[in-house]
Write a structure and sequence with these properties.
It is a single chain. By secondary structure, the chain is of the alpha+beta class. It folds into four domains: 98 residues, no CATH class; 88 residues, PAS domain (Beta-Lactamase), CATH 3.30.450.20; 72 residues, Helix Hairpins (Orthogonal Bundle), CATH 1.10.287; 156 residues, 2-Layer Sandwich (Heat Shock Protein 90), CATH 3.30.565. Helices cover 52% and strands 19% of the residues. The protein is built from eleven helices and 13 strands. A hairpin with a 3-residue loop joins strand 4 and strand 5. Helix 1 packs antiparallel against helix 2. Pfam families: HATPase_c, HisKA, PhoR. It is found in: Cell membrane. Keywords: ATP-binding, Cell membrane, Kinase, Membrane, Nucleotide-binding, Phosphoprotein, Transferase, Transmembrane, Transmembrane helix, Transport, Two-component regulatory system. Its main location: membrane.
């Protein structure tokens, strides 16, 4: 910049000196200097006007050819223009590749602007959500009116995907997942999971039907075995086999009942019932059942500092509470302490079962709610568990907007806690 200023000043001096010599020769040196200044300023204004006209016309074509400092400025603009054009071409090429690649995806991709308005979508999303070109700029909730999706779209704390029927076709199931970025912008991924949904429904129906059909023969077998054992007419060598058959029949019956309960939880509506369940009474009932299973081998206590009414299904809540308490009895050594507690705070209500049992290695905790998952298969068979208890607890919590947390270390016992949100609770004192 300094070199350009010096060069322009030198040109001005040359012009001024030329007209000064002319002025001195003619005796009109002041007039000569004035003409030199006027010509120089006129020339600069002319170049500036040409450059300003080029800028006003949107910089169409190359910058105007000029001399002096304006020529150098024109050259700089020309170089910037060429660089911008190359970068723009690269950007367009990249954008075309991105659009081509997203157009080839089977998953639908929808870009959302501020307020959840449609900005762009690939052909798969257009086909799955029945979007047309003229829909751009409209709110997505105009096309996906499900209340669950409206909550999912506006709640930034929602985790995981959402499954909904496709617009205009309830037989097709879509999985939607939102990724937020930038300022109030989001990317919606849409997948067609109809086949997976149908396979999962077939599995649920199969388990439910088979479990239901097994109940009758198991009841008949158990009845005959109990009759033979209680009659006293069975030969002595048959008494132990009869007892073992009765035990295994009972275990099989428990497994079938758990499978039926789990199938019902999976296939029923997501929201739970509207009963008002007194937590204190429920805990005392569960504690009695745990003491009955323990037979005095454990020290079981109940700590309910702030009683409350929990809105939901009484039988399902009892199943969840009891599963945790009975598991603590099964996996705690004789003489161990088991504490059932209930607390309230600003985040909601919390039921926990703390034991002094064998504990669980942290690597197993993420998989505890899987069906039939065993941390120690041999010990689980000895305890008579079905391997479905925590899976039932998980589905009960899903229907009651709750969460499960586990804190455990090998040899230090475990704490299983059920967390319920505030809107599910009512103070017992209000009733």
């Amino acid at each position: 910049m300094l070199e350009r200023s010096i060069g322009e000043f030198s040109r001005f001096l040359v012009i001024s000196l030329g007209f000064a010599v002319f002025g001195f020769a003619t005796g009109q040196w002041l007039l000569g200097l004035t003409l030199a200044l006027a010509i120089y300023l006129g020339w600069v204004l002319l170049l500036q006007t040409r450059f300003d006209r080029w800028l006003s016309n949107g910089r169409q074509g190359p910058a105007p050819t000029s001399f002096g400092i304006w020529g150098e400025i024109s050259d700089d603009f020309y170089r910037l223009q060429r660089r911008h054009r190359r970068e723009k071409q690269k950007l367009h090429a990249t954008l075309r590749r991105v659009q081509d690649s997203t157009s080839a995806l089977r998953e639908g991709i929808v870009a959302l602007e501020e307020g959840g308005n449609l900005a762009w979508w690939n052909p798969a999303a257009g086909q799955l959500l029945q979007l047309r070109a003229e829909d751009a700029g409209q709110p997505l909730i105009n096309f996906l009116r499900d209340p669950g999706f409206v909550r999912y779209l506006h709640d930034e704390n929602m985790q995981g995907p959402l499954t909904l029927p496709a617009p205009g076709n309830d037989a097709r199931k879509l999985q939607l997942e939102i990724t937020r970025y930038g300022k109030d912008e989001a990317l919606l991924i849409v997948r067609d999971i109809t086949r997976l949904h149908n396979l999962e429904q077939m599995r649920r129906d199969f388990v439910a039907n088979v479990s239901h059909e097994l109940r009758t023969p198991l009841t008949v077998i158990a009845g005959y075995l109990e009759t033979l054992e209680s009659s006293g007419q069975a030969p002595k060598p048959w008494q132990r086999p009869l007892q073992q058959m009765l035990e295994q029949t009972g275990r099989m019956t428990s497994l079938v009942n758990d499978l039926l309960l789990l199938a019902r939880l999976e296939t029923s509506e997501r929201d739970s019932g509207r009963e008002r369940v007194a937590v204190g009474e429920l805990m005392e009932r569960v504690a009695r059942e745990a003491r009955g299973l323990s037979g005095g081998r454990h020290n079981i206590t109940v700590a309910c500092s702030d009683d409350a009414l929990l809105t939901g299904d009484a039988n399902e809540l009892h199943s969840a509470f009891a599963n945790l308490a009975l598991n603590a009895v099964k996996y705690s050594p004789n003489g161990g302490d088991i504490t059932l507690s209930w607390t309230l705070d600003s985040r909601g209500g919390h039921f926990s079962v703390r034991d002094s049992g064998i504990g669980i290695d942290p690597i197993h905790i993420p998989r505890l709610t899987e069906r039939f998952y065993r941390v120690d298969a041999g010990r689980s068979r000895e305890s008579g568990g079905t391997g479905l208890g925590l899976a039932i607890v998980k589905h009960v919590l899903l229907r009651h907007s709750g969460e499960l947390s586990v804190d455990s270390r090998p040899g230090r016992g475990s704490t299983f806690a059920l967390h319920f949100p505030p809107h599910k609770l009512t103070s017992a004192a209000e009733n």
